Amino acid sequence: MKSKNLVFFLVSLTALIYACKVQMTTTSSSASSATPVVITQAEEQASLNLPVETVPAMVPLSPAQSQQAFRVPKGYHMELVASEPMITEPVALAWDGNAKMYVAQMETYTQDADGTGTKAKISRVMLLEDTDNDGKMDKSSVFIKDLMLPRMLLCVNHELLVNETDTYDIYSYKDTNGDGVADVKKPVYLVGKVAPGNLEHQRSGLVWNLDNYIYQTVDPVRFRYTNGVLKADSLPSGSNGQWGLTHDNYGRLFFSRGGGENAGSGFQINPKYGALEFSDAYSEETFSPVWSSISNPDVQGGPKRLRSDSTLNHFTSANGQSIFRGDRLPSDLAGDYLITEPVARIIRRANVVNREGKTYLENVYQNKEFISSTDFFFRPVNTYTGPDGCVYIIDMNRGIIQESNWTPKGSFLRDQIERYKLDKVNQRGRIWRLVHDGYTRGPQPKMLDVPAGNLIPYLDHPNGWWRDNAQKQIVILGDKSVIPVLKQMAKGQQGALPKRPSALGQLHALWTLEGLNAIDKEVIYTTMKDPDPQIRRAAIWIGEMYLKQNDEEFIAKLSELTSDADYDVKTQLILSLGASKNESAKRIVKGILEQHADKQMLVSAKASIDKNEDIKTYGSRLGRLSAGDRKLVMEGAEIYKAMCSVCHGNDGKGLSSNIAPPLLGAKHLIADKETSIRILLHGLKGPIEGKAYPTEMPAMKDNTDEWISAVLSYARHEFGANRPREYRGLPYPAVYPADVKKMREQHAVLNEAWTIEGLEKLAPPLPVNR
User: Fold this and answer.
1) What is the sign of the dihedral through the CA atoms of 46, 51, 52 and 56?
2) Is the pLDDT of residue 343 over 50?
3) pLDDT band for position 646 (50/70/90)?
4) Angle between helix 552-559 and helix 567-577 axes, rounded to 10 deg
5) Where's the Cytochrome c domain (predicted)?
6) DSSP state of 414
7) What is the extent of the structural domain holding 119?
């Protein structure tokens, strides 16, 4: 019995060592690689010859030990900002205008592999302060308690807006007596119903963008903060993304979809204009692979997601992205895209590249990552540019990172959780700051309780965090006295400012005017001629208010930009004018497209606008169809309602008399189009799904191919939405006259109605994986 136990121990030990080994060939670091839990390849080879007491256990690292486990480029290093017990299970943070930090904690997130107690309302938002400006938080309080997995935070003046899991509602919290605890709660956006879906598939964000709209992921809505509440504005083509949302200096939003193993999406155009993606926006061959510094056996995708050395081979949980917009790290990092992969324990750095208006992501490093860690429990889930101009990283520092829906008993991931006892490591968490050698801290911001005029210089601050928050605060204060100096600044004039504004300062002044409803044509016309293309682009974007008024003078001014050398400017013209019914606007768009018919971005932007308008007009389902398919469906709707509904019902559910079978979800209608064509051409007799009906379906072959294609296209479109589970995900095309012609010729000699048995002999089988 003892020998069996020893064998089991040695086998388990070998697996444990293999899971924790460091991949030494793909990393470089200015920090020491020695930690209590990292085992090198040489040690692994000799492991079975080592005395048991000399083999380290897989135990969680202290913050100091974890700090030494980072692998970062030369010149960079990590500093600890906060850790347990001050914070536990952190997922998101937000700073107010004075750099007080609010941290959302999901304290019931996957505390075991079954998700026991996940929905208990005991999570919190912590308030952290750095009272001596040394970069480390030294004061904390429970700002809000008894929450259900808080997921979105946004500071507005002295208030904190918070959204919790399973609800669309957003509340404002405020501390009125200065004790660090919220004592006033009020609703700012109420829907009043439960938000469906797994907690991984619900919204994140609340990002105040350059355009003064507040964006979130998943749900097709954005907000405007007006008079203390959030006013919703719908996005006809839907939103994007899952966990993580950011924007660049020019208001371009960056989403990601971890569930789809998508490390970046939605960054070609603003979602108000539709949904535009390019399959080559980043390379599957060079961008999608990830490069860990430690083995990653705990993957939801199983062995197919692992290399031979047990490292993750591909993004599987991309999230928590940010564009670095700070001023205290090397300038070559500015504008780069950072995104976390908590399964790989890495943070990717990518260049954002613009070619003829189309945006690409390109990995900065070959076969290695910007940041990685040999701490097995390093779990980065969010990144930010901070008030001090550095990169901030939220590390949940825990065992299980996948939500319990994907860790059922018998699954590959569940086996790994149990093997390595990952469920025992939780209720931890760190916030890290990436700094560079020689870094010095600047003064902390003081943007609250100061006049709006004092904030104007910050619109031109070298750190994007300061620019964003100054703009937001001025808009929230609503002080109109600053409008004259903002106009001077937007036009690039020094005026009363200490110096002539930079292009970014101009841009923020321009959008701050927009947020104060203080835009006029003089400002727009001046900025349309600015040397910087991003200011010209913003002028077009903001000027859409005049397009809504069908202002011919404004449209004539836009025509002067059609020969602009910058493709972002031309793309914005397409986006802003593409939906206009004005004939002059149509001519501008037509002229641009004719001149640049070979430019993918311009042509695709117009197609996206057209689709977006179709969705507005016809609804999301019809609007997503091509114009030709939509015409078929609409013609078929008239035929169906006039003729077919008499037996099958307007809603396709059949009639109480049971004279004919229901069509809603009927597999012989929706499984493959040839079957449905055969039925309509020649009719159907006999039992259907084991049930007999008093009459048989008559043949409709005397009608034209166009007639039959139209009514079938409508029926398949309308009654396939709730089709049986085994048919979901199958191709669901329209039926075209050529399809009908083919079936008519194939069965030209048939003079009797089909039976279900006869049809099923001809129908193609359903896919095996469904």
Assistant:
1) negative
2) yes
3) confident
4) 150
5) 631-719
6) H
7) 63-436
Residues 308 and 357 in one domain: yes
Single out the residue in 436, 463, 495 at which a domain terminates: 436
- In a domain? residue 48: no
Count the alpha carbons within 13 Å of 366 in the hemisphere toward its beta carbon. Answer: 0
One domain, residues 244 and 139: yes
Let me know: does 458 contact 466? Beta carbons within 8 Å: yes
* Nearest residue to 402 (alpha-carbon basis) of 459, 306, 317, 502: 317
Gap between the Cα atoms of 64 and 432, Å rounded: 12
| 3-state SS assignment for residue 683 | coil
Residue 254, beta-bridge partner list: 246
770 found inside a domain:
no
Please name which of 65, 180, 68, 152 lies closest in space to residue 428, comparing C-alpha atoms: 65
Say yes or no: 617 and 648 in one domain: no
State the Cα–Cα distance between residues 459 and 641, nearest whole angstrom. 59
Single-letter amino acid code for the residue at 506: Q
Residues 705 and 589 in one domain: no
Mean pLDDT of 449-462: 97
Phi, psi of 663 (to 5 degrees): -100, -20
Same domain, residue pair 390 and 495: no
Last residue of a domain, one of 436, 471, 488: 436
User: Would you state the structure tokens that stand for residue 537, as one six-digit string?
Assistant: 């682009």
Together in a domain, 673 and 595: no
Residue 368, amino acid: K
Q: Are strands 346-355 and 101-105 parallel, antiparallel or unpaired?
A: unpaired
CA–CA distance, 345 with 441 (Å, rounded to integer): 28
Identity of the highest mean pLDDT range in 260-264, 304-308, 449-453, 637-641: 449-453
Check whether the bond before 85 is cis (ω within 30° of 0): yes
> Could you tell me the CATH number of the domain that includes residue 334?
2.120.10.30
Distance CA 215, CA 325 (A): 18
- In one-letter notation, the amino acid at residue 10 is L
What residues form DSSP beta bridges with 322?
Answer: 338
Least confident residue range of 58-62, 77-81, 117-121, 224-228: 58-62
Q: How many CA atoms lie within 13 A of 35 on its CB side?
A: 29
Residue 106: name the closest of 348, 423, 481, 398 by CA: 398
- Predicted confidence at residue 732, as pLDDT, reads 56
**Residue length of the chain:** 770
The tally of domains found in the chain comes to 3
Going by pLDDT thresholds of 50, 70 and 90, the confidence category of residue 724 is very low
Query: What is the Cβ-side half-sphere exposure of residue 589, based on CA atoms within 13 angstroms?
Result: 23
CATH number at residue 649: 1.10.760.10
Do 595 and 648 reside in the same domain of the chain?
Answer: no
Residue of higher predicted confidence among 469 and 630: 469
pLDDT of residue 51: 35
For residue 662, the model assigns a pLDDT of 87
Terminal Cα-to-Cα distance of the chain (whole angstroms): 47
Write the CA distances from 448 to 95, 451, 485, 517, integer angstroms. Answer: 12, 9, 20, 22
E strands within 4-158?
A: 70-71, 76-83, 90-95, 101-105, 123-129, 139-147, 150-156
CA–CA distance, 366 with 677 (Å, rounded to integer): 54
Average pLDDT estimate for 630-642: 82
* Token pair of 400 as six digits: 């299980």
- Mean pLDDT, the chain, rounded, equals 88
3-state helix, strand, coil in the chain (%, to 5): 35, 20, 45
Return the ∠ at Cα 207 (arms to 573 and 192), rounded to 5°: 110
Q: Is residue 449 one of the residues assigned to a domain?
A: no
Q: Are residues 564 and 490 in the same domain?
A: yes
